[in-house]
Design goal:
This protein has twelve helices and seven strands. By secondary structure, it is an alpha/beta fold. The protein has a single domain, classed as Rossmann fold (3-Layer(aba) Sandwich). The protein has a seven-stranded mixed β-sheet, sandwiched between helices. α1 crosses α2 and α1 packs across α12. The longest helix has 20 residues. InterPro entries: AAA_dom, DNA_Partitioning_ATPase, P-loop_NTPase.
């Protein structure tokens, strides 16, 4: 089982699109694949599950979801603190495994644990009760159930992102070619390396995924070359801009199922193949 986190502290760089489309290719290749959505915006959840995972003020959030899992984690601690609880009651209230929060997507081999817009409200309680390793432990229990796990993260270095990095084997960094993204990249990499040193020595940066890459434009070429010259792990497979991505989102169809022969689909396939070569 290989777990990848897709993470960038900057929003709007294509995290959810990259998460879902790589996961969909993984599933299409025959790998039993799970997407875990830790971003309260729930873009990955909505991409794969459509209206069921699309929330509004007058529509309840899809359950079970990842917020329910972390609620269980907190509830476990609280139940254990009650003096006089019978052993049977304590065992009964123990947190469920992550498999209890999985939804099947419409696509073969591809499952989802959806996000919740209320997830962020739990962060302080989880931090104060030192639950930072709970996701890692829960993922270890899924060994044998899945071949590949992809975790979408919020655009911030917070409890949930740190939990994902602690739980993961690899981290992918989406990057769009502008000066502000380049400046933020160094802080992001420092945070990842610090997590590696303090919490997860098996974590590695699998690569920087250049998104919205316009190969005929001068600035993107210069920015990418600067990253390579500085020794940063820029992946060779880059993702071009295309309006088909909006259609893919609108139809809740990852590209591999929407337009197999499209140039962007082929770019994602090349990216997936490059990552899989690294994992051998």
């Amino acid at each position: 089982m290989l777990t990848r986190v897709i993470f960038n502290q900057k929003g709007g760089v294509g995290k959810s699109s990259i998460t879902v489309n790589l996961a969909a290719i993984s599933a299409n290749e025959g790998f039993k694949t799970l997407v875990i959505d830790l971003d309260p915006q729930a873009n990955s959840s909505q991409y794969l599950l459509g209206d069921d995972a699309t929330y509004s003020t007058d529509k309840p959030v899809l359950e079970p979801n990842i917020e329910n899992y972390f609620d269980e984690v907190l509830g476990t601690n609280q139940s254990k603190g009650l003096i006089g609880n019978a052993l049977g009651n304590i065992l009964k209230n123990r947190s469920k495994g992550l498999d209890a929060f999985v939804h099947q997507s419409p696509f073969k081999n591809l499952d989802v644990i959806p996000a919740s817009p209320n997830l962020g409200a739990l962060a302080h309680a989880l931090e104060s009760k030192h639950k930072i390793y709970k996701l890692r432990d829960a993922l270890q229990q899924l060994e044998g159930h899945y071949d590949r796990i992809f975790i979408d993260t919020p655009p911030a270095f917070n409890f949930f992102t740190l939990s994902a990095l602690i739980a993961a084997d690899r981290v992918l960094i989406p990057f769009d070619c502008d000066v502000f993204s380049k400046r933020a990249l160094y802080t992001l990499i420092e945070n990842i390396l610090e997590t590696q040193d303090d919490h997860n020595d098996r974590l590695s940066i699998e690569g920087i995924v250049v998104n919205q890459y316009q190969h005929q434009a001068k600035l993107p070429k210069e920015v990418v070359q600067q990253l390579k010259d500085e020794g940063l792990p820029v992946l060779e497979s880059m993702l071009p801009p295309s309006i088909i991505m909006k259609e893919s989102h609108h139809k809740n169809l990852p590209l591999i199922y929407l337009a197999t022969e499209h140039k962007l689909t082929k770019a994602y396939q090349l990216l997936f193949n490059e990552l899989e070569q690294h994992s051998r």
